[in-house]
Amino acid sequence: MSTIEVMEGLQRRVALSVSTAELEKRAIVKLKQIARTAKMQGFRPGKVPMKMIESMYGGSTRSEILSDLISEAFSTLAETQRLRVAGAPDIAPEGELNFDAPSLDFSAQFEVYPEVAIGSVADLEVERVRAQVGEAEIEKTLEVLRKQRQSWQEVDRPSENGDQLTIDFKGSLDGVAFEGGHAEGFSLVLGQGRMLADFEKALIGQSKGAALTFPVQFPDNYGAERLAGKLAQFEATVHRVESSVLPDVDSDFAQQLGVADGDIEKLRAEIRKNLEREVAQRVKARIKAAVMEALPKVSSFDLPKALIESEIESLAEKAKQDLAQRGIDAKQMAIPREAFEEPAKKRVQLGLIVSELVRQQQLQPRPEQVRVIVEEAAAAYENPAEVIRYYFSDRQRLAEVEALAIEQNVVDYVLQHARVADRDLAFDELMQQAA
Questions:
Q1: Run of H or E residues at 71
Q2: Which pLDDT tens digit goes with each residue over 228-243?
Q3: Angle at 433 between CA 432 and CA 435, to 5 degrees
């Protein structure tokens, strides 16, 4: 049995040996298989001489088989020695390989998972937030829904915040127009912050037909480098001033929002139900974040570098995908590796702690628990039964739900044993922080 050499931290090294006789035996079998279908000019398929097959395919075939044999030897060793290997091993030959010798010798250097000792969860302090949905929240939501369906009516008065203006404008630096600094028939709702503060401020109090010139200070961190920190001059002409007209909360409004009979009370009940579901989800997310933030305090151990590197790559790839979704070419941006190192370490550490806690306290998901999570998610859709079938028809999708169930079991366990401080959170604060 090979001796495991303990190196620094979680690093280990072990000697591996591969039989050259077994290598040759498998190579002959493989080359004969290749020969049955090999095609070569001047020979019928399957009639190419073995010497030529050997010459063409012998090297690559033996290399592939040698790789398989090394992998098998390492897997067998890891199984017999009960090694919990973290990441792929770094395998190198011991000296120059001699294929005439009885065996080929290699060394494998690798990391093992750490022993994770969980301290007393009772020593942790966790904040558990609570939030309520009341009549004020329903009224605010109705107001948002009204604004989403607003119309515009032209008015003959100076403009105010909230009005929509239709304007032409042209900007210049030192008397020279700059690219992207002009538009015709441009619609702008004052107060939304779509344009720079100086620009919107100049347009407040202006009536239809007004022509004005005004300065606009670009901030130092403005996205377009050529404009950052510069003072520009703008000319603008106001063609129309329109005021917002909100729909009444009546039966027509309710029908537009999916209440077939136009019953306003049914609409309000539906809004309450949706808000309560949203609040419950955000409260649950806040509590889970608090638990996961606290858990690393109960255990300290070395982290496998291989797992950290894998997590860094995963976070970097996700960052690239996020940029791509926003229309930014990640190839044009240098994303420093260091930006992901600390988050990667935290994720690896937390993952190992959670795994050990699940094992120790038997917090694996229960089938009925998984079912409830799927049904809760499906309730937000028009056809819940179809969503439920969607999850249960695919093992990978169901595994994602099981992972959520495990996280919830961990959260529940910590809340049962830690020192918990309850705090009431205002609805607006919960929504703002979540955003």
A1: helix 50-80
A2: 999 999 999 999 999 9
A3: 65
